[in-house]
Amino acid sequence: MTEFDFIQQYLHRQQQDNELVLGIGDDAAIVRPRSGYDLHFSTDMLVGGTHFFTDVAPEDLAHKVLAVNFSDMAAMGATPRWALLSVALPELKQDWLTAFCDALFALARRFGVTLIGGDTTKGNWVFNVTIIGETPRQHALRRDAAQLGDDIWVTGLLGLAAAALDVYLHKTSLPAAVFAQCEAKRLRPEPRVALGKELLSLAHAAQDISDGLAQDINHILKASNVGATINVDLIPSLPDLRLSDAFLPAQLYHWLLAGGDDYELVFTAAPSQREAIMAAANRATTSVTKIGTITAGRELQLINHAGNVIQLQHQGFDHFG
Ligand code: ADP
Ligand code: MG
C-alpha cells in the first residue's frame, strides 16, 4: 500500500462538523472558530519502545494516541474539536491500519472530534497527534490559578497503569483479575473531558496526571506560587493494590504518586464548591476524591493518616532524568 492509498482509503471519512471549512486532501485544513470561544492547541507524541510496545494491538494504540491528547484538553476544561495525526511506520499493513483507523475514528466520533490532517512517512514507530480544542472565552482552567486554602481533588483511580507496567518490567506480579483491571487502564485511559467542562465554573487550577501525581501537581504549585499537603492514604486506587500485604509501601507510593500514565485530572477548588463538585462528578459519571489542601508553604508535603511525612524516591517520569 502506498502513502496515497492510505490517505485516500483510510483517512477520508465523512464526519459531521459545522466549523470545518476544508478537511483532509488539500495542503492544509481550514476551520472557522466559533465566535466567543478561545482555541487551545496541544500535541503529544507516542514513540515505540518508549511509550508503547511495538507489538501493541492497533486498536489500543489508536485509543491511546488520541486519548492522551484529549486528556490535555480535559485538563483545561476544553472541548477537543479537531485532530491532526502524524505517523511514522516501517510499513503500511492493511489489516493493521484497518483496525487502527476503525478504533481511531470510533473514539474521535464519541468525543465529537474531526481528523483534519496529518502526515505519513516511513520510519520507526512514532505517532503524534496535534489536538485543537475550545473553551468559552477566558474561562479555561489553568495551572497558575490555585488559591490558598483550596481543596485538592483527583479523578478516578491512580497507580493502575504503573502497576501494570511493573508487571512487564518483572518488578512485581499481580493476581490475574487485578492485572486485567490495571492493564485496561494502561491501554485505554478514559479522557475526563465531560468533567473538565463541568469544572470550568467550579475549579481554580487543573492539570492532567501523565507523569505521576507528585510531579504533575508541582506544576500547579510552581505556576500558582503555593504549596500543598496531600494525604497519601486518601489517594484513590484499587483496594487490591492498596490493601495487599504483597507490596512494599515504597512500591505502592511509587505507583500512586510517581508511576505515570494515569491520565486522570488533579484540580483545586474552594471548599465552598464541594457539593457542586460532587454533583458535577455525578453528571459526568466520573469519581472524584479530595486528597489534600493548597498551603502557603510553596512545597509539596506528603503525609499519611498517622501524620507521618512520606518521602518519595523519585517524583515522576522524566525522559531525560
Ligand atoms: P503534503 O505533501 O502537501 O504535505 P500529503 O500528501 O502529506 O500532503 O497529505 C495529503 C493530505 O492528507 C493532507 O491533507 C494531509 O493533512 C493528509 N494526511 C496525510 N497523512 C495523514 C495522516 N496520517 N492522518 C491524517 N491526515 C493525513
Ligand atoms: Mg505531508
From TrEMBL:
Q: Residues that bind Mg(2+) 3, according to the entry?
A: D27, D72, D208
Residues at which Mg(2+) 4 binds: D27, S42, D72
The PurM-like N-terminal domain sits at 25-134
Q: Which GO terms describe its molecular function?
A: ATP binding; magnesium ion binding; thiamine-phosphate kinase activity
Alphabetical list of Pfam families matching this protein: AIRS, AIRS_C
Task: Provide the GO biological process annotations.
Answer: thiamine biosynthetic process; thiamine diphosphate biosynthetic process
The family database entries (InterPro entries) matched by this protein are listed as: PurM-like_C_dom, PurM-like_C_sf, PurM-like_N, PurM-like_N_sf, ThiL-like
Query: Which catalysed reactions does the entry list for this protein?
Result: thiamine phosphate + ATP = thiamine diphosphate + ADP
Q: Where does ATP bind?
A: G118, D119, R143, S210
Superkingdom, taxonomy of origin: Bacteria
UniProt-recorded name of the protein? Thiamine-monophosphate kinase
